[in-house]
Amino acid sequence: MSTTSTTQTLHNNASIERPRSGTWDGGNEPFKASYGKLMMWFFLLSDAFTFAAFLTTYGLMRHRHLAFTGDHKDFVFSTAYWPIPDKVFNSFPGLHGMDLPLAFVALMTMILIFSSVTMVLAVEAGHRMDKADVQKWLLWTLLFGATFVSCQAWEWSHFIGGTEEGTKMLDGTIFHGANLQMNQYGPVLFADLFFFITGFHGTHVFSGLVLLTWAFIATTNGTFEKRGHYEMVEKIGLYWHFVDLVWVFVFTFFYLV
Amino acid sequence: MAHHATDHTQPTGEIPRPVTGWIWKTFFVLVGVTALEFLVTFVMDPSTFRNSILIVLTIFKAFFIVAEFMHLKHETKGLIWSILVPMALLIWLMVALITEGSAIGEAIYNAFK
């Protein structure tokens, strides 16, 4: 305020004590949102572009390869065409050898939706300045988030390890599982895109967990209570919901279509 | 701002009761639509029509997450549009590059014929 009043003095002595309030002189908030919240929104917008680039690449590569045209039950893994997702992701921890198409990814989706709900509940508790409730819901969100990342770790290790049968490659050898150069499920890029898209999403969930842990500690220490508002929880909440939002799209474009 | 009508500048230590009805309503919408997506995936044979249904359902789910959970529906018009308008570019990107993918595929398969 002190610096602005000096510059203002040069122009208008009468307005020296008056705060700026005009539309174009920085005196108001056109979006009625704080700087931090706005920047979180625009960061998320840029992040949406990153994920959209990934999913668009998936679409491009999928259309660049042939699709499997035969009957669903006759499907076998081959590098000649793009695999059917529910033939690749059909295993469940502890239920070895059973064909459970997309069952595990359904569970992961439910866990992430639950974590989103507990996150909104934490934000809602923050609006009411209810410290105990914020702590409780942040812990639940952390629990669901950590469970999701663990599920993803299992899914990755199963994808990398592959099935017992494996797939006969062009040189006549049997290959099990996947890496960035070879995989038993289909074209090389199928596994590459799996690693990059779910990996990038998993990294986002992990960053969210770090932020949530920090927010939980700050809430416990009474940092937000002293500040008079829980806006930080709200901003982390925006990020967390965005991660859920990305999963909604990854789920459809990678696992369903 | 409609959801937290409760004033958060309480003068004393009195904590208002939580209002969570809208949260659970959104939750059931999300779970319901996800279940519907699974049903569509397994009941229908793969086709452009099936994929269109799945994409519409996905956007429906995304709308609920962004509007309710991320609270965008209750922000100012300016903020809503500055987030939504750039998304139009993504639709263009997707359509353009998927078409490109089909063209590349055709070129490659015809080259080795």
Structural summary, described in words:
The complex is a heterodimer of chains A (257) and B (113). In chain A, 64% of the residues lie in helices and 3% in strands. The radius of gyration of chain A is 25 Å and the shape is elongated. The N and C termini of chain A lie far apart (57 Å). Chain A contains eight helices and four strands; from the N terminus they run H-H-E-E-H-H-H-E-E-H-H-H. In chain A, strand 3 (167-168) and strand 4 (174-175) form a beta hairpin. Chain A has helices at 2-11, 35-64, 85-88, 103-127, 131-161, 188-220, 223-227, 231-256; strands at 66-67, 81-82, 167-168, 174-175. Chain A folds into two domains: 1-30, no CATH class; 34-256, Four Helix Bundle (Hemerythrin (Met), subunit A) (Up-down Bundle). Chain B folds into two domains: 1-74, no CATH class; 76-113. Chain B contains four helices and no strands. Chains A and B meet through helix 2, strand 1, helix 4 and helix 8 of A and helix 1, helix 2, helix 3 and helix 4 of B.
What would a concise description of this structure say?
Chain A: Keywords: Cell membrane, Membrane, Transmembrane, Transmembrane helix. The complex is a heterodimer of chains A (257) and B (113). With 257 residues, chain A is mainly α.
Main sheet: strands, sense, barrel of chain B: none
Through-space gap between termini of chain B? 62 Å
Strand content of chain A: under 5%
Q: By helix and strand content of chain B, what is the structural category? A: mainly alpha
Task: Predict the CATH topology of the largest domain in chain A.
Answer: Four Helix Bundle (Hemerythrin (Met), subunit A)
CATH superfamily of the largest domain in chain A: Cytochrome c oxidase, subunit III, four-helix bundle
How many separate domains make up the residues of chain A?
2
User: Tell me, what is the CATH class of the largest domain in chain A?
Assistant: Mainly Alpha
Judging from the principal axes of the Cα atoms, what is the shape of chain A? elongated
- Counting DSSP H or I runs of 4 or more residues, the number of helices of chain B is 4
Termini gap of chain A: 57 Å
Largest interface: A-B, 57 and 55 residues
The quaternary organization reads as: heterodimer
Estimate the helix proportion of chain A, in percent: 55-70%
Number of helices of chain A: 8
- Tell me the number of strands of chain B: 0
Number of strands of chain A: 4
Number of structural units classed as domains of chain B: 2
- The secondary-structure element order of chain A is HHEEHHHEEHHH
